[in-house]
Amino acid sequence: MLSARPSRTAQAGRDPSCMHTLDDMIESVSRSAPPLAPLFRSDQQMHILAELFAGSGAEVSVGELARRAGVAQATASREVARLAQHQLVVTRQLGRNTLVKANWSLPWAKELRSILVQTVGVLGRLAEALAGLRGVESAFVFGSWAARYAAEPGPPPRDVDVLVVGDTDLRSLRRACRSVEEELRVEINPVTVEPAEWDNAEPSPFIAQIKAQPLVPIPLDRP
What we know:
By secondary structure, the protein is of the alpha+beta class. It has 2 domains: about 1-115, Orthogonal Bundle (Arc Repressor Mutant, subunit A); about 120-215, 2-Layer Sandwich (Beta Polymerase, domain 2). It contains 12 helices and 7 strands. β5, α10 (about 170-185) and β6 form a beta-alpha-beta unit. α4 (about 45-55) packs across α5 (about 60-70), α4 crosses α7 and α5 crosses α6 (about 75-85). The chain is elongated and about 55 Å long. About 30% of the residues are buried.
């Protein structure tokens, strides 16, 4: 695949700066590329880009961006400087703060957003879908998607397994997940578990199997 560099230049409209940007994004993929989307240079870079392109799209300070992406502020500052150099993001100074937002004027900005939404952005979309449901105490992604997210090697996930702990109607849960399925073009398999069953010291074989595998919490908004 790395021998196809000329085609990347052609796809970027024969703009050398676009080729430089793409080369920079895939730098060191053999060492630190996230398994969910190995196009990106590192897991930190992917999460930062996801917050900017797959989130609300609003301008945000570097400090707040670091908090949302779960990275150190120094790391966020370095990544933002690198991304700004290649015009993936737009920055401006407001006093001592650096504000940053996605550069939506890029010809492939929508495609980049699509990649991010279908990988790390899955969690954000699911959190939004579950926000309107009653009785949700906690929620997780499990199965192959969670395994890739946890850096376990394997094929790209074809679907997303979602587990909701709480007193939630399964039909309502499926209806809430339908919009996410349509947006991400991926099958979502939701299941519900009663809190007492989830917290049981001697869980059922199904629960025990799920808990023995990677679980990725869905970041639910709490009042």
